Amino acid sequence: MKKKALYPGSFDPITYGHLDIIKRSSEIFDELTIAIVDNPDKNPLFSIEERKKLIKKVVQVDNVTIDTFSGLLVQYAADNSFQTIIRGLRAVSDFDYEFQMSLTNRRLGNNIDTIFFMTDEKYSYLSSSIVKQVCRYGGDISSFVPDEVSSALKGRLK
Ligand code: COA
After folding, report:
1. In this structure, what is the dihedral angle of CA atoms 59, 57, 152, 134, given to the nearest 10 degrees?
2. Secondary-structure percent of the chain, ordered helix, strand, coil, rounded to 5
3. Which superfamily does CATH assign the domain made up of 4-124 to?
């Protein structure tokens, strides 16, 4: 049986931190699905379709697919037969939130498991919001996001 996993997130936009998790988890699982959430609590810079297009441009790995969802993650996982969620942990500050989500999802989602990857130390301080902020004020974001994402950000924030 193929081992498949789900990597959910806002990806507004995708950064090198996310790409590191995608690379490492896609080497362990037979199939990885990046699931972009339509999160009404966040006010995204890019629409969900724009985020999907950007990810398609920068992730070209055979066993990785990209999808979008709204509503509960565990519902999406059940509808698509996922039993494993991937998340990245950047620092201790991520732990409480991730711990809470992981246990809630396990309770709601038929014992679904969350597997955590320690984010590469190079990206441990990175977030999509920080990248947007640096770009908005004209800072150099070339070490945070690929060129395609950088161009899209500059176009949007100009
Ligand atoms: N490297 C760099 N940055 C990273 C990162 C990494 N490895 N991992 C996470 N981040 C950043 C993201 O860029 C993001 O930054 P931002 O807040 O500035 O946008 C931030 O960390 C949050 O990460 P993200 O993965 O986008 O998480 P989220 O909190 O927006 O969404 C979901 C997490 C999708 C898993 C959650 O919202 C969800 O499940 N939603 C569906 C509704 C649901 O089921 N709710 C109940 C859950 S218990």
Report:
1. 20
2. 45, 20, 35
3. HUPs (3.40.50.620)
Instruction: Decide whether any atom of ligand 1 lies within 6 Å of the 88 Cβ.
Output: yes
Taking only the tens of pLDDT, the chain with its 158 residues reads 899 999 999 999 999 999 999 999 999 999 999 999 998 888 999 999 999 999 999 999 999 999 999 999 999 999 999 999 999 999 888 999 999 999 999 999 888 999 999 999 999 999 999 999 999 999 999 999 999 999 999 999 98
pTM of this prediction? 0.95
How many angstroms separate the alpha carbon of residue 90 from the centre of ligand 1?
Answer: 11
Cβ-based neighbours of 106, under 8 Å, separated by 6 or more: 112, 113, 114
156 burial via Cβ count (<10 Å: 0-12, 13-18, 19+)? middle
**Cα separation of 36 and 148, whole Å?**
18
Closest-CA residue, ligand 1 atom 38, reads: 73
Residues with active-site annotation: 18, 42, 90, 128
Other Cβ atoms closer than 10 A to 110 = 11
The number of the ligand 1 atom at minimal distance from the alpha carbon of 88 is 7
Domain boundaries, the chain: 4-124
